[in-house]
Every structure is written in C-alpha cells, then in structure tokens.
Design brief:
13 helices, 46% helix, disordered C terminus, 4 domains
Length: 267
C-alpha cells in the first residue's frame, strides 16, 4: 500500500466506510480495515443527535438488532453507546406465566413468605409475585393481624402496644434512665446523631402489653436490635440493672410489684 493510500485512509477513515475507501483505492474493504487497524486508526462511529433521538424513542419497544440495523451499526456498538454514552438501560421484563402449581404455592405461602423469596423460587421477581397476588385476589394489606401476619412470632413481638405506651410514658422512662442506653450507655443526643432517632423504650420481658416502668428501659437502636436474640438472658440482664438502680423487685424473671408501696413499687 502506497504512502498516498495510507494518507487517504488516515484522512477519511472517520467519515467514509471501509468499503467506500476500498472503492476509491481499488482494494478490498477487508484490506482497508486491516490497514486501518494496523495504523491504530479506530473507526469511532459517532452518533448524530438524530440517531440518539431515534434510540431514545425506540429502545424500549424495538429490539437491539432492529435499531442497530436502522443505524447501520453493530448491536454491540449500539449496546455500548446506550450504556456508556447515553446511560440508557433497557429493562427486560420477561413475563412469568404462572402454572396452577405455582398459583397454589403462592396461595399457601404468601402469608408467611416474602414476595421476593417466592419470586426466587419461580425465577421471577417480587414485583411479578405482587401482581400475581393481586390477580389471585390475595393482595397483601394492612388488615393482617395475629397468626395471619407474616411477621407473626408466636404472639409476643407484634401484639399491639398497650395504649399507655405513649409519648409521655416513653419520655418518663428515658428521663428515669438519664437519657442513656441501658446497655451501652449511649446518650440520647448521640443516638439522634448516629441513627437519626432517639433512644427506644424496650419492653424487658418482650411483652409489649406490659407497659409499666418495671418492665421498660431505654435502649439505643443498635442495642435494641441486638436484644432480639437470647431474649431470656437479656430479660434477666435488664431486670438486674433496674433492680440495682431503682430497687424494683423481680423473681425468676417475673416482676414483683409492691402493692403497699402503691404504683411506685417502692415501700
Ligand atoms: Zn446501646
């Protein structure tokens, strides 16, 4: 290939196709392509605004292959342009067709399984399960209660809070505890900074209906979630702390209320 041929390639590889150049130089398109590659001339296909507009308008409904053919580029190039340059992501949702068995499975398990987990079983996603639940008339809603609730844990953790358990009571407990987490000692202010939430008031025996000061203490968010396991030993742990600090009495995890001493539990 002569110097002038090479010069021609250099000057025109960006605007002419290889076969067009080949025609001019009387060579094969393949040899032009080879030469260009050897010269380090990567033919960068720049999409025009119109072409980009076309992609934007059609990428959701047309196949990559169809768009690529229209623009006379390869599907690989199209994909890379869409992803890297145009930041367009095509979400391909393959509709899942539910078999009778799957529908049956959903009916039997939607109350105690998460949509996401059911979805995994059927190789689909939570959204699809959610839609299917609706179709089956099984839409999850807030009317779940008791044993039917997906978070049912033996009737303890999710019983509705006692009506006494309002803001005032919580504040009283936190005041009593000096606004400190009774497990790690974190201050209420620090809890707010760290967790964007103040201290929680924890039910020591996990019975949320037993909302009395002997059964409640302040915990930061982290400790509050830590005490979800090993419940028995945590109950005893906090009871011994409150017993020491405030003179409350417990026996084998049960609260001993001093009736004579009135509501205060003090004699
Ligand atoms: Zn804590």
């Amino acid at each position: 290939m002569s110097e002038s041929d090479i010069k021609f390639i250099r000057n025109n590889y960006k605007t002419m196709t290889y076969s067009e150049i080949a025609k001019v130089l009387g060579r094969s398109a393949g040899s032009i392509k080879d030469k260009a590659r050897k010269l380090g001339l990567n033919k960068v296909r720049v999409l025009t605004d119109n072409e980009k507009e076309f992609i934007k308008e059609n990428y959701k409904t047309m196949k990559y292959k169809e768009i690529a053919e229209k623009l006379n580029i390869s599907t690989d190039l199209l994909k890379s342009k869409m992803q890297k340059e145009m930041k367009l992501k095509r979400r391909i949702t393959i509709p899942h067709h539910y078999t009778d068995e799957e529908n049956e499975f959903i009916k039997n398990n939607y109350l105690n399984m998460k949509s996401k987990d059911i979805g995994k079983k059927f190789n689909t996603d939570a959204n699809s399960i959610h839609n299917q639940l609706k179709k089956l008339g099984l839409a999850r809603d807030s009317t779940w209660s008791g044993e039917k609730h997906p978070n049912y844990q033996g009737g303890i953790a999710f019983e509705p809070y006692d009506s006494n358990f309002h803001y005032k009571f919580k504040t009283l407990i936190k005041q009593r505890d000096g606004f400190l987490c009774q497990k790690c000692g974190m201050r209420e202010e620090d809890s707010k900074t760290l967790f964007t939430k103040g201290l929680a008031v924890h039910h020591i025996d996990y019975n949320k209906k037993l909302t009395i000061k002997e059964n409640c203490c302040s915990l930061c968010l982290r400790c509050n979630s830590e005490v979800n396991s090993n419940r028995k030993s945590w109950t005893l742990f906090f009871q011994s702390i409150l017993s020491e600090k405030y003179g409350y009495k417990y026996e084998e995890g049960k609260i001993i209320l001093n009736i004579d001493g009135g509501q205060d539990g003090k004699s």
